[in-house]
């Protein structure tokens, strides 16, 4: 239900923080009344207030997003919404405590599967996530269309998989729910040329990642629901777990609740692809986008690959053989990650030798030093401010020349050359599979580089 609310945000008294807070309101396209910025009476802080007419889901989303704004200390609504963001940095809690204690998890029993019936779902894109969403929804009894570029390999595969395939604009026009699952840099063009003309009152626009909505590349019209269901696994696992009668966890977020049913409709979608079997965690577009980018850059991809290469280079520069450096800094990483995946850091430490555990506990902080932690904070600040998004969007629109050069240099790193030769000795690796397929008489060395990705 839409009611008049006053939002109050206490923030650092600087124009950059104010600009970030105002930008959040601007991206939501909400009509704002009685906007004021005053001193709180406490040196170094301002209080921003504004009146808006909105519903519980929207105010909850706004309050969560304000917490993610660098420089914001406190955000509340009056009358109170379902969530108030407490002041940061007090003596008894950390900034993340309120978020963790308030996260809602939904399961199949909380969802209405009937909402999958009598609605047409257009899955735009048929890559890792697209093929899983389309097939799982179909197998859950939903009417599914796949929107693709005519004549491509994905079109042919979707037909082979027994799905109804149409050009993107046709699929979007015929659908009640449009899930955009093409890569981030391509989404705006696909949206503007083929999806936006098909949007009308009562339709739902969905995403599996908040990048384009959060950073303003896609601005949805009034009258449509905008939501997100983001499975926390690759698409092939979304599909295989569904087929096994299980599911993978997912995130749900509501950016715009025009119908008043955006959340139950999104949760029905999560049930349709199997994620509600495992649990669906409530979040916001801002939180999902910013934490996802930070994880990729600082830990999962950028941090891990840089750490592996630095370790390899340290050993080889000291005169150790590249083969030994490869095994110790890259190959055995899987053993450790598998243990962490099974039972967390504690299970991994329980499973390794005492020597390894002591080295972990006494030396890890020397590698991830205060300077590294400070750089992580700078990475997060660039993500929150939109600086990374602007850089990546500009690079993509320019044809990605720097990206291509960085890829080339990464492929030519010595660890890749050594690794290709060693992996050819391991039948379960890609190089090992190719080596096994060669005639026994062939003595050709394995290729030194992976082929370029399609």
Account of the 3D structure:
The protein is α/β, with parallel strands linked by helices. Helices cover 50% and strands 17% of the residues. The chain has 20 helices and 13 strands. It has helices at residues 15-28, 56-67, 97-102, 128-139, 153-160, 168-174, 184-195, 211-214, 235-243, 262-272, 285-300, 302-317, 322-331, 333-351, 354-367, 370-385, 387-397, 401-411, 414-423, 430-437, and strands at residues 3-12, 32-39, 45-54, 72-78, 105-106, 120-124, 143-148, 164-167, 177-180, 204-207, 225-231, 250-256, 280-282. A 9-stranded mixed sheet has the order 5-13-12-11-10-9-6-7-8, with helices on both faces. The longest helix is centred in the C-terminal third of the chain and has 19 residues, at 333-351. The chain is globular, with a radius of gyration of 25 Å. Residues 81-101 and 441-454 have low confidence and may be disordered.
């Amino acid at each position: 239900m839409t009611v008049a609310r006053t939002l109050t945000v206490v923030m650092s008294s600087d124009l950059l923080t104010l600009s970030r807070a105002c930008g959040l309101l601007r991206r939501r396209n909400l009509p704002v009344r009685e906007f004021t910025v005053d001193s709180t009476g406490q040196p170094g802080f301002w209080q921003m207030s504004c009146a808006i007419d909105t519903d519980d889901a929207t105010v909850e989303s706004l309050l969560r997003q304000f917490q993610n704004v660098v420089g914001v200390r406190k955000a509340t609504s009056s009358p109170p919404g379902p969530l108030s963001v407490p002041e940061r940095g007090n003596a008894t809690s950390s900034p993340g405590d309120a978020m963790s204690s308030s996260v809602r998890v939904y399961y199949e029993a909380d969802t209405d599967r009937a909402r999958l019936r009598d609605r047409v779902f257009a899955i735009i894109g048929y890559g890792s996530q697209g093929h899983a969403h389309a097939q799982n929804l179909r197998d859950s009894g939903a009417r599914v269309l796949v929107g693709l570029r005519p004549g491509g390999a994905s079109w042919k595969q979707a037909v082979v998989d027994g799905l109804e395939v149409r050009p993107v604009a046709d699929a979007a026009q015929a659908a009640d729910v449009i899930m955009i699952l093409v890569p981030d840099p391509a989404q705006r063009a696909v949206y503007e040329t083929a999806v936006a003309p098909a949007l009308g009152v009562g339709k739902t626009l969905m995403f599996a990642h908040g990048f384009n909505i959060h950073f303003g590349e896609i601005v949805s019209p009034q009258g449509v629901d905008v939501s997100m269901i983001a499975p926390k696994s690759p698409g092939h696992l979304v599909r295989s777990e569904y087929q096994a009668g299980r599911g993978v966890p997912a995130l749900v977020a509501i950016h715009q609740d025009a119908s008043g049913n955006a959340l139950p409709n999104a949760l029905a979608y999560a049930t349709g692809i199997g994620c509600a079997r495992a649990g669906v965690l409530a979040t916001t577009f801002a939180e999902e986008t910013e934490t996802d980018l930070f994880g990729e850059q600082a830990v999962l991809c950028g941090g891990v690959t840089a750490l592996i290469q630095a370790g390899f280079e340290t050993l080889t520069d000291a005169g150790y053989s590249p083969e030994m450096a490869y095994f110790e800094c890259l190959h055995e990483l899987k053993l450790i990650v598998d243990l962490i995946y099974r039972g967390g850091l504690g299970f991994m430490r329980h499973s390794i030798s005492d020597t390894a555990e002591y080295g972990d506990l006494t030396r890890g902080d020397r590698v991830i030093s205060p300077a590294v932690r400070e750089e992580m904070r700078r990475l997060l600040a660039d993500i929150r401010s939109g600086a990374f998004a602007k850089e990546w969007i500009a690079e993509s629109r320019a044809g990605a020349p720097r990206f291509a050069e960085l890829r080339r240099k990464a492929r030519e790193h010595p660890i890749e050359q050594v690794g290709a030769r060693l992996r050819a000795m391991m039948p379960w690796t890609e190089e090992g599979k190719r080596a096994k397929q060669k005639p026994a008489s062939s003595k050709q060395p394995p290729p030194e580089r992976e082929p370029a990705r399609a």
